[in-house]
Amino acid sequence: MKRLFFLLVIAAAFVACKFNGNSTRTLPILGNREPVTKNVNGKQVTDTVYQTIPAFKFVNQYGDTITNKSLDGKIYVADFFFTSCPDICPVMHRNMLPVYNEFRSNPDFRILSHSIDPKYDTVPVLKRYADKMGVTGNTWWFLHGSKDEVYSIAKNYLVSVQETRHVHDGYFILVDKQKRVRGMYLGTDEQKVKEMMDDIKLLMEEPDQK
User: Fold this and answer.
1) pLDDT mean over 22-35
2) What is the DSSP string of 160-172?
3) Rounded-to-integer distance, Cα 137 and Cα 187, Å
4) Mean pLDDT of 3-21
5) Is residue 135 classed as helix, strand or coil in its secondary structure?
6) Residue 133 in contact with residue 112, Cβ under 8 Å?
7) Sign of CA dihedral 178, 179, 185, 187
């Protein structure tokens, strides 16, 4: 029920942004938000503070340390998976390959795939997985971290993972340069992934993303 409600909220946000009378559509900012009042030039001004992805530290398939600072000035897509997943993960990453190929030459774009099975998905395992997919370079990082760190950050991406049988949501999460969640797309649905690619291009055109 909570998932249904959340998806309805997202759908409503997209509709509102698309048909608000403006000629240019902008992506919504998802997650929690709160008003903050501050004094600017002697006047009280209320601003909105949005939920952002917090500081993190993981290791990618090359053994390099990746932190939130590694994403400064970059738009990225995140997802959660495990290499031995028999069902949705292969479909998700097969659908992610066109995204990788489309934006791999853009230095301001990244893909982050967080393993939820750190015991098995060691750095060498992640490297073999990336090689098998034909992924090279630094556009797409497959990340290893402690179970607590991975499961904790999943909540900030507005998705859920469960230790029992490594259950996880199959969403791709689009994050802007300010570390705000701007879209969620079902990774097993090719059409939704195509929509995400269009939204990535749209996001890149926003003034504060250039």
Assistant:
1) 82
2) -EETGGGEE--EE
3) 22
4) 43
5) coil
6) no
7) positive
